Amino acid sequence: MKIGIKFLTFCILLSHLTVFAQNGISVSGTVTDDNGQPLPGASIIVKGTTTGTQTDFDGLYALNDVPNNGTLVISYIGYSTQETAVNGQTAINISLSEDSQALDEVVVVGYGTQKKADLTGSITTIKTEDITRTPTSAAMQSLQGKVAGLQVVSSGAPGTGPTIRVRGIGSYVGGASDPLYVVDGTFFDDIDFLNTEDIETISVLKDASASAIYGVRAANGVVLIETKSGKINQKPEITYNGYQGVQIAQNVVKLSNSEQFATLARESGSDAEAQSIDNAIQRYGRSRINPNVPDVNTDWYDLILRHALQQNHSIGVAGGTESVTYSLGLNYFEQEGILNMKNDYERFNIRSKINVDITDRLDIGISTLFSNATRYRPESTAFALAYYATPTMPVLDPSKTDAYPRPYANAQDLGYRGTQNPFPVMENTENRDKIRNTLTTVDLNYQLVPDKLTLKTAFYHNFETTETREVRLPYFFGNGNAFRENAELVKRNATFSEQTWDNTLTYNDSYGKHNLTALVGTSYRDRSYEQLEAKGLNFPNGPGIGDESYFLDLANSIDVDGVGDDGVRQYFFSYFGRIAYNFDSKYLLYGTFRADGTSKYQEKWGYFPTVGVGWVVSEESFLENSNVIDFLKLRASWGELGNANVDSSTGGITSDAVDGVFGDVRYPGLVTSSDFEALKWEVTAETNVGLTARLFNNKLTIDSDYYIRETRDAVIPVSRLLVPGETRQNVGVIRNSGFEIVANWNQKVSDNFSFSVGGNFSTLDNEVLDLAGQENLTSGGDTAQRTVVGGTISPFFGLKVDGVYQTDEEIQSDPAAQAAIADGLTVAPGDLKFVDQNGDMVIDAQDRVDLGSYLPTYSFGFNLGMNYRAWDFNLNVIGQGGNVIANQKRFAIRQTPDANIDRDFAVNRWNGAGSTNSYPSARGIRNPWSNQFLSSFFVEKGDFVRLQNVTLGYTLPKLNGKFNPDIRFYITAERPLTFFNYNGFTPEVSDGRDTQTYPIPGVYTFGVNIKI
Known about the structure:
By secondary structure, the chain is mainly beta.
């Protein structure tokens, strides 16, 4: 009966979202910390009642119907709870003191929580106010520059998340270094479907000790996401957060204009290129400004790019009674792509989280999240085609009367080999993905022994479907590769399901100065993936016919080679345990052990221990009266983790019939070989030492770490003995090490003004320690990357440039140049000059060296925040350095000698003795001598500094009356300025190979936050 009454009360609460309270006075005020910083989300409750509220963005609160003789209870995580008598006051301001000795702030760790003061591992937590400041569809984008040791490589394409790396790369295999994402207990490979407004906190678990409880998915770090929840005795709170913005392509690469292109063509030494300029003049007329160039000057990047809109709208409701808490959320997000084609992203999310105390010992929680997104992917070749397209040709050529569906201009008509026009493929291609995610969580908690021993069982289900439709309509604007004959339709349906059942038993107790938390548990996971694909040809299309014809049933034929059916299913089972012990909140001990079993590898089980220790030095008597040190903790940890991100074993045993002759007699035989990969876990062992300090009355906070992460049994390709080919084997060793520091200063200057300033800096040293006796691992073809022992993973590998030949005499005096000429190559002034590394007076493959890694060796972030009365201001700056980018667009000019090139080269090219010693000539960049191998001329520095985010907000004054919402308006500039020297749209290239990176736009938004 009691349970039924509670359930009925909860239903009424959800239906009406209204709480009735007794009559009284209205009380309002602010809640701040000791430094005057507002505390948003602080709880204010009338003692002994369910009447309560929370502070807004600026620490403001208002309560109605408060008894004259009542008492307010004010609490905030990490601060001492305070009680204040009302005594008829209508304005009460409260300043909460941080509990600096206990540091009671609770942070999320695997399968539970822990006091921040008790942590021995490296964990960084970012809260909702810092997450939502970034206007993005991908939640992880909001962490860029905010977490030391976390690399976030942005992506400009709508609906595409950034590349995330925690403390570098520990695997040679691509994709095996991705972190694990855990959303309210459910495992994910990415969280691009999440709405940032639904997130309460994101915690990055960086070291093995912090991550190990999650087992073999956590070897590359863990990102824990807690979505928003209601609170006990919280009045219904309705929030709206929305913004509208525009995206503008930043740092657009300037291409050679018609005059520069014509000059390059005539200087190239190619009669065909010079003739193509004359052909363009004959076809399109002469320029009135310069009669030596055509009357066409097309800026292809300007034509394929556009300003694009972006909007986001979120509505949330949260609240709670003594036994029920709830949180509901709706979100709509829309983003146009800056590529001028069908290139958009639209997403609708709905979320709910409910927790009900069935009895004093039993509670149940149910949360659901549904995401429905539609993404139109950009044409993959658009930016490359635009880069190489000649400016002496327009988009449309009216003389092409036989072209279809529009008279697209074709560079082949001018004598070039390629069509060099991106619009035919852009306008006649549509790639749509419909992505649906459903996350369901049900957990049951029962206190076997009240406040001491708790049993939790939880079921999580992540279900995702992706429906892909790729439409390629026919077009014709010339022969060769200037047409698409058939209308092509590809349908691809993929289904992913991951079910997890966790059971944990947690014991908490204190014995005098001894404090112990122990946890044991099991975890079962069932992970499956299926994909079905088919391709149809020549379905109805043309003017007036739309997507109503985009069905395989309407195709004239099905391409049998385009039909595929694939799938995989994997099982995991784990046992794990954890002990967290402290003595007198001074000496800390933390340890975990996990046994992971899987169907994925031949080695079914892996066993992974971790241990951490800490010493809270500030609790010692010799620091009791310190006027500087409020809190100081030294910590160290070590642990091992298995990596299950490496693909399963492949290959098999093959037999070939062979004949042998012995004594003039022929004998049939059989040769058997195996390319089967008997893989086991990659094992990551990590040592971390660090300190946490709070100084000068808690104004200054410092967190610093040094780590060494070593991947043993790393999977690398190994050549097979006596048999051609390679197999993957667990024989490599890779090490990442680095230093991280985070410092923040918070201060209240006056009652009206406060500020905060802080920053983080991290280093990364990536080194390969063992390749199982192999000399190197080389990949990448023309833009080679070679891994050697003692170097980084896959650095670029090529010739070192030593200037530019200025005169014939310089060439004649260079033995290496003379050897090349004798070998049939042409070497002339304006060609690149290379370093003869081995001194054999010949420039060849043996002179190639390490040209640098795409992994940055350092990164940093800086933040500044200020509050003046109702105004708030925030600024973030980020940067990185020590990495390089292979400019493959430029390097490919050697394969497309009649293509355009960037204006930087056209302006700075060598055009006579003494003109430059850095850039080759127009002929030289196309000369086989200058580009026979990748060289340092084509590998550029990737260092950058960016003004990442600037936000200015204003909170309206409180209105008089019972309806008293909090309203804040703000404007944001995201990525307005980036400073770098690389000759591309962006220095953020995930693998360091820039063939046609999608530009990362600046985003300028206007938004409003409303809380009722």
